Amino acid sequence: MEQNINFEESMKQLETIVQELESGKLNLDDSMKKFEEGMKISKECSQHLEKAEKKITLLVQDGNGEVKEENFN
């Protein structure tokens, strides 16, 4: 899979693979290849989410009424 494919495109590819696997029309070898491809895409999606999560910050109000930024945990 290309490095420049975004999360949404990766999810669409994953959905297509799931539909193909659920159709029952693939032989065992093709099913295994699709499964392996799906696992790779799933891992990449997970990495996209982890990267996005690290960028998220929360705005919280402290006891003095001031708003400050904190990292998302």
Mean pLDDT: 85
* Strand order across the largest sheet: 1-2
Q: Which descriptor suits the 3D outline?
A: rod-shaped
**Percent of residues in helices:** 55-70%
CA radius of gyration: 19 Å
* Regions with little confidence, pLDDT below 50 for 5+ residues: none
Short description:
The protein is built from two helices and two strands. The protein is α+β, with helices and mostly antiparallel strands and 73 residues long.
What do you see in this structure?
Strands 1-2 form a two-stranded antiparallel ribbon. It has 2 helices and 2 strands, in the order ααββ. The model has no long low-confidence stretch (mean pLDDT 85). By secondary structure, the protein is α+β, with helices and mostly antiparallel strands.
